[in-house]
């Protein structure tokens, strides 16, 4: 065995770039967050400017925080820790640079397009198709650089943080590509290839796992590296971190449907989502406790060291969020909490508490190291900590109070069965004080963040950035049994045998119809388990490599296993819903596709971000029936590319709005929401009366929808433009009767056409037989908005 | 035999059955992690963040 010393200079320049980008975009995301929080409390803060409207800025806020702030922070942490854990410089500086500048260009593109209303209309995946392609390409560059570095590493072991990074890279790629599948109408507009229920399931499979694999797993990797580093002691239980990793990777992917409880999603998928969410409790808390217990015997340092202070609070918020998430996934809790501010509070507990505080701890750790200068002010860091913590608590508590209040007021019924609060705005007025408290909490958090920026700038000012150079000892010894074992040893390893035997037993169970065999199988499973245990024990005693020891050192095999763990949940949940022949309505009638004008109006609905505040999904609950009308059914959405179910009701549900009010009401409401709904906090949308749409796109839009499977005939496409104007003229004439002059091709007319269509489709006959029944009863008298 | 397995079982029992299985696995995992902890199994791996190279001077002293 020989040893050699190798000198390695890490690429810390890329870490610094990502760190500063994260801080910059973090500030932008928070400023926009405080602005939109204020807009909900004071509608005047929308300023009547389209590009500053809540519904357009909210996607900008979420994208800035998730992909710009946390994304850049994650990359900084990954580049910093990966090089040190692998004892190797990143494989290629050019790829690192392409990754950095490509990602920043994507963020700038998002910052420009989202306020302009260029959006897919899918939450957390709003960016349009050219940007989606850019994201995929930049992600591939990142992946190549990362896996190339793994290949040329000087450390045989792959530390648990690296596993979390591997899971992040491959899962985000899968999620992004599947959920972004769309057919373009123009360079800046596309339609999801999925529709209705299928689109909803794919979207929340993506949405939930964006939380899991973009906001959680990479930050857990960062926790497993930086927390032991700051505490100067190894992680409490490495074995627990292994369990934490595999359990999270396997379970998280199944939990997406908990965002769709009580919707038109099939019940089995809802229950599966709830069950896996509940099970997530265990590994999440295992990870949290592993983090906190790492500080055993070092709690005195937490008092002194701002870095540890932020980490401890961050990990604690991780524990709180991962307790609250499964709680909210229980169907009976979801019945109260879904669509309310409780969900907003939960999301911000994770984003501000877990992501934000972990980011701050990491920045306070890295900046002094990379500039060779101590932190400028510990007192300022302490002040940041308390401002942030109190800010988050104010935010979360106000949203809990507001959310529970909303849920209870929406449900409240009088003794005679009517709704207690018939007007939706009664709820809004009741929770307004909480919106003000939320804005105060957000402002405190922003103030703390600004303090951090000042502190870090003072720290690095006058200091010269430096790349760390280290000397590492590399052992050129004969390969250990684990290293010598080739891929064959991985494939023929006992865990794979036993897994195969288990799968065969399960198949036999479902095929053979014999009680005696069932007992036999159960005994056989126990015997196989016992044999596995004994064999493993003997082999370890003989010094043979463990199967995990083999796989842990083989990035490719490890990556394949992670991919399989992730895919099994995705495939099991998505395929049955996607393969089902959805276009068979329970009424026996097919659904009538949208008219050209209604489709145009639908585009405007998405552009203005109406889905941000309004759901289109009436749940099967008595109070929802009383307020909105009949529960929504899966077949009503089969031509919705994309679905617009929404996830929050700052305003009322709109699925049964069609035909409930005259055109004039909609016109008046959009021009001045408080004229029709006193107490509303909705922005005005006066520009809709002025702006006109491109009527020539009507045929092309129908043609794209035809390609997606919507049954438009070629004649429909040819006459789309004329039909569009014809339908618009009827609305214009109706408005004119009431003294309102509107242009036929105004955005206002198209949007009214779409709103009037919602939820009142009576279907067209699949055969020559005429439709027999109306799909919808009229809304009950006394229902309120 | 799946017929016998499902016969008489209400659908609500299935998630509870799965949850029960999960809890059993969870407890076994806890025992394996904490009670039968064999020191040294992962000694090298768990110390990786603390042994990521000896810093040498570049253009000024650094202490990673």
Number of helices of chain B: 3
Q: Strand fraction band of chain B?
A: under 5%
* Helix content percent band of chain A: 55-70%
Number of E-state strands of chain A: 6
Structural class of chain A: mainly alpha
**Helix-strand makeup class of chain B:** mainly alpha
Question: What is Rg of chain A?
Answer: 28 Å
First CA to last CA of chain A: what distance?
78 Å
As residue ranges, the low-confidence spans of chain B are: 57-64
Q: Biggest interface, and residues per chain? A: A-B, 51 and 37 residues
Lateral strand order in the biggest sheet of chain A: 1-4
Order of helices and strands of chain B: HHHE
Q: Give the biggest beta sheet of chain A.
A: 2 strands, antiparallel
Description of the structure:
The complex is a heterodimer of chains A (785) and B (64). Chain A is mainly α and 785 residues long. Helices cover 64% and strands 3% of the residues of chain A. In chain A, the strands form three sheets. Chain A has a two-stranded antiparallel sheet. Chain A starts with a strand and ends in a 20-residue tail after the last strand. The C terminus of chain A is likely disordered. Chain B is mainly alpha-helical and 64 residues long. Chain B has three helices and one strand, in the order αααβ. The longest helix of chain B has 23 residues. The N and C termini of chain B lie far apart (62 Å). Chains A and B meet through β1, α2, α7, α8 and α9 of A and α1, α2, α3 and β1 of B. β4 of chain A pairs antiparallel with β1 of chain B.
Topology:
The complex is a heterodimer of chains A (785) and B (64).
Chain A: E1 3-9, H1 12-41, H2 54-86, H3 93-113, H4 129-151, H5 160-179, E2 182-186, E3 189-192, H6 196-213, H7 217-231, H8 238-252, H9 267-293, H10 299-304, H11 306-329, H12 331-337, H13 341-371, H14 378-411, H15 424-460, E4 469-475, H16 481-484, H17 487-491, H18 494-511, H19 515-541, H20 547-552, H21 555-579, E5 589-590, H22 596-607, H23 622-628, H24 663-671, H25 673-676, H26 687-690, H27 698-707, H28 714-718, H29 720-737, H30 747-757, E6 764-765
Antiparallel strand pairs in A: 1-4, 2-3, 5-6
Helix pairs in contact in A: 1-2, 1-3, 1-15, 2-3, 2-7, 2-13, 3-4, 4-5, 5-6, 5-7, 5-8, 5-21, 6-21, 7-11, 7-13, 8-9, 8-21, 9-11, 11-13, 11-14, 13-14, 13-15, 14-15, 18-19, 22-27, 22-30, 24-30, 29-30
Chain B: H1 2-6, H2 13-35, H3 43-46, E1 54-56
């Amino acid at each position: 065995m020989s040893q050699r010393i190798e000198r390695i200079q890490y690429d810390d320049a890329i870490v610094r770039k990502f760190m500063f980008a994260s801080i910059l975009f973090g500030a932008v995301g928070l400023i926009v967050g405080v602005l939109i929080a204020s807009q909900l409390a004071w509608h005047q803060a929308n300023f009547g400017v389209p590009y500053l409207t809540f519904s357009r800025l909210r996607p900008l806020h979420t994208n800035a925080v998730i992909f710009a702030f946390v994304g850049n922070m994650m990359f900084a942490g990954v580049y910093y820790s990966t090089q040190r854990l692998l004892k190797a410089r990143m494989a290629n500086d050019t790829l690192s640079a392409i990754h950095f500048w490509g990602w920043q260009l994507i963020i700038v593109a998002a910052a420009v397009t989202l306020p302009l209303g260029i959006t897919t209309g899918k939450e957390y995946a709003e960016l349009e198709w050219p940007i989606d392609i850019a994201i995929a390409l930049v992600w591939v560059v990142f992946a190549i650089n990362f896996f190339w570095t793994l290949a040329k590493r000087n450390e045989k072991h792959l530390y648990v943080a690296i596993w979390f990074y591997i899971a992040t890279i491959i899962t985000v790629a899968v999620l992004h590509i599947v959920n972004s599948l769309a057919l373009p109408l123009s360079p800046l507009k596309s339609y999801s290839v999925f529709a209705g229920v299928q689109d909803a399931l794919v979207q929340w499979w993506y949405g939930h796992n964006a939380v899991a694999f973009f906001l959680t797993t990479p930050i857990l990797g960062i926790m497993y590296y930086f927390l032991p580093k700051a505490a100067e002691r190894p992680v409490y239980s490495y074995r627990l971190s292994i369990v934490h990793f595999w359990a999270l990777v396997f379970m998280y992917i199944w939990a997406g449907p908990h965002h769709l409880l009580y919707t038109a999603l099939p019940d089995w998928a809802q229950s599966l989502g709830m069950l896996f969410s509940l099970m997530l409790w265990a590994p999440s808390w295992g990870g949290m406790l592993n983090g906190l217990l790492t500080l055993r015997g070092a709690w005195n340092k937490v008092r002194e060291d701002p870095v540890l202070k932020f980490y401890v609070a961050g990990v604690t918020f991780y524990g709180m969020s991962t307790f609250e998430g499964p709680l909210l996934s229980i169907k009976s809790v979801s019945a109260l909490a879904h669509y309310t501010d409780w969900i907003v509070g939960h999301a911000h507990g994770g984003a501000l508490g877990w992501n934000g505080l972990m980011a701050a701890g990491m920045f306070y750790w890295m900046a002094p190291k990379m500039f060779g200068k101590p932190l400028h002010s510990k007192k300022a860091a302490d002040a940041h900590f308390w401002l942030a913590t109190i800010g988050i608590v104010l935010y979360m508590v106000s949203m809990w109070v507001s959310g529970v209040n909303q849920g209870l007021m929406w449900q409240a019924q009088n003794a005679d069965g009517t709704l207690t609060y018939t007007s939706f705005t009664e709820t809004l007025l009741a929770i307004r004080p909480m919106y003000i408290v939320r804005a105060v909490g957000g402002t405190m958090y922003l103030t703390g963040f600004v303090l951090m920026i000042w502190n870090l700038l003072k720290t690095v000012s006058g200091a010269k950035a430096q790349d760390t150079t280290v000397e590492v000892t590399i052992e050129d010894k004969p390969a250990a049994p684990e290293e010598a074992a080739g891929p064959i040893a991985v494939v023929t390893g006992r865990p794979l045998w036993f897994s195969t035997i288990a799968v065969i037993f399960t198949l036999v169970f479902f095929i053979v119809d014999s009680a005696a065999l069932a007992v036999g199988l159960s005994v056989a499973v126990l015997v196989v388990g016992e044999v596995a245990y004994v064999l493993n024990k003997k082999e370890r005693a003989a010094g043979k490599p463990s199967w995990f020891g083999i796989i842990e050192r083989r990035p490719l095999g490890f990556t394949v296993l992670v991919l399989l763990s992730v895919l099994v949940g995705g495939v099991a949940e998505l395929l049955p819903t996607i393969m089902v022949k959805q276009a068979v309505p329970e009424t026996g009638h097919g659904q009538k596709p949208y008219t050209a004008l209604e489709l145009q109006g639908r585009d405007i609905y998405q552009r203005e971000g109406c889905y941000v505040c309004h759901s289109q999904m009436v749940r099967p609950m008595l109070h929802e029936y009383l307020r909105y009308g009949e529960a929504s059914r899966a077949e009503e959405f089969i031509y919705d590319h994309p679905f617009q179910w929404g996830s929050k009701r700052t305003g009322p549900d709109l699925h049964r709005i069609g035909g409930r009010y005259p055109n004039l009401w909609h016109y008046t409401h959009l021009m001045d929401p408080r004229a029709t709904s006193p107490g509303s906090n909705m922005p005005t949308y006066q520009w809709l009366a002025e702006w006109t749409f491109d009527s020539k796109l009507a045929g092309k839009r129908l043609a794209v929808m035809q390609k997606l499977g919507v049954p438009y005939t070629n004649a429909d496409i040819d006459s789309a433009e004329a039909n569009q104007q014809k339908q618009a003229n009827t609305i214009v004439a109706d408005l004119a009767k009431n003294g309102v002059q509107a242009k036929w091709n105004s955005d206002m007319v198209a949007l009214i056409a779409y709103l009037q269509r919602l939820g009142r489709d009576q279907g067209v006959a699949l055969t020559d037989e005429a439709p027999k029944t109306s799909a919808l009863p009229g809304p009950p008298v006394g229902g309120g908005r | 035999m799946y017929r016998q397995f499902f016969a008489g079982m209400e659908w609500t029992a299935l998630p509870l059955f799965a949850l029960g299985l999960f809890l059993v696995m969870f407890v076994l995992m806890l025992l394996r992690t904490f009670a039968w902890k064999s020191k040294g199994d992962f000694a090298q791996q768990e110390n990786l963040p603390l042994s990521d190279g000896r810093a040498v001077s570049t253009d000024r002293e650094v202490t990673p």
